[in-house]
Design a protein that fits this description.
alpha/beta; 15 helices
């Protein structure tokens, strides 16, 4: 495999699957965690390594090390591997997705932004999703029954139990206190604002086609997806939150060995479901309109990334992330009609949010 984002949680779990099932690792692409990258190199012996920063090249224990976005694209093109695991964070994952498709490779996709910003220009027939929610929808959608609605679940993020009046005082440290698990900085903030779930609904719409999509909060994160059928019945995908399960299916097609422990419902005792309320998660205001106009995803993503940068820098408050997204969404009315236009609009929206 070509593994983009090897030192993040998805990348680490992809390498666990590679080890368990004796899959070869052709290329590793990593960010700034060079110490972990060097451990991965020693264990998996890739042919080539790419890091994001030129300054880190000399610290990498490998004879074939390059750096930067162009190096990632070249590695995808040069590699004989037909499988790309794209676990890069944010808009940076879009161009590598396009390059992998151009090269005729199969993509195990965790970079939801690739579809959020450019789903109209991405051939989803060559993509297998490895977000647990989309994997759950795919897993349930294997029969011939008519589907009425697809539903993904959310944890509710760091502020699901906060009094609403306290949200205006939320700090970066507060936003990073996820109630169920430890993840990277951006995705944890996205979980707290519910932007992450907004993106997942949009991703599902590109993956599975037009239809009705929704989300709800399931506080224990044991149900990842539900499907409502035309006959009135509903099925749910239960599994412990472990990315090895969707990664294994994406890389091998089918799995006949245990990947995760079964859930003992008698020990769980009960589950709690909550609606996603706009008062707590203001971005939910645009959910329905965005699903009707999916090409506007580039606006939401660019505004979100720019606003998060400002939040981390201490320039704006937590709630200002959502307000920045809503102002950008209501200020940009044209949609990009080419890949080049997506990159141009991305820059325009980021500049707009940085000037708010």
């Amino acid at each position: 495999m070509i593994l983009l984002g090897s030192t993040g949680s998805i990348g680490v779990n992809a390498l666990k699957i590679a080890e368990q099932f004796h899959l070869s690792v052709d290329t590793l692409v990593a960010g700034r965690n060079i110490s972990l990258l060097n451990e991965q190199i020693k264990r998996h012996n890739p042919k080539r390594v790419v890091v994001m920063r030129e300054a880190d090249r000399g610290s990498v224990d490998h004879s074939n090390v390059t750096s930067g976005e162009e190096a990632i694209l070249h590695a995808i093109e040069e590699s004989s591997s037909q499988h790309v695991v794209n676990a890069l964070v944010g808009f940076a994952g879009f161009r590598p997705t396009l390059k992998a498709l151009e090269c005729g490779k199969k993509i195990a996709l965790a970079n939801k932004e690739s579809l959020v910003v450019g789903g109209a220009f991405v051939d989803t027939s060559s993509i297998v999703p490895i977000d647990s929610e989309h994997f759950g929808l795919w897993y349930l959608n294997q029969g011939e029954r008519q589907i009425d609605r697809m539903v993904v679940t959310a944890s509710g993020g760091a502020f699901r139990d906060w009094p609403l009046k306290k949200l205006s005082t939320a700090t970066l440290e507060d936003a990073l206190k996820h109630p169920n698990w430890s993840m990277g900085q951006k995705i944890t903030i996205d979980s707290a604002s519910m932007v992450n779930k907004l993106f997942e609904l949009l991703e599902a719409r590109w993956l599975f086609g037009e239809g009705e999509y929704d989300a709800l909060i399931e506080t224990k994160s044991l149900i990842h997806a539900l499907i409502d059928y035309a006959d009135g019945s509903t099925t749910a995908h239960f599994a412990y939150a472990d990315m090895r399960l969707p990664i294994a299916y994406a890389l091998m097609g089918k799995v006949d060995k245990p990947i995760v422990d079964r859930i003992d419902l008698t020990r769980i005792g009960g589950l709690e479901f909550r609606a996603i309320e706009q008062e707590r998660y203001p971005v939910w205001e645009i959910k329905n309109d965005l699903l009707k106009n999916p090409a506007k995803g580039v606006i939401v993503n660019a505004a979100n990334e720019a606003a998060i940068e400002r939040f981390i820098a201490g320039e704006i408050g937590f709630l200002d992330i959502s307000s920045s997204i809503l102002r950008a969404y209501n200020s940009f009315h044209t949609v990009p009609e080419s890949v080049e236009a997506i990159f141009a609009m991305d820059e325009q929206v980021r500049s707009f949010v940085r000037g708010l």
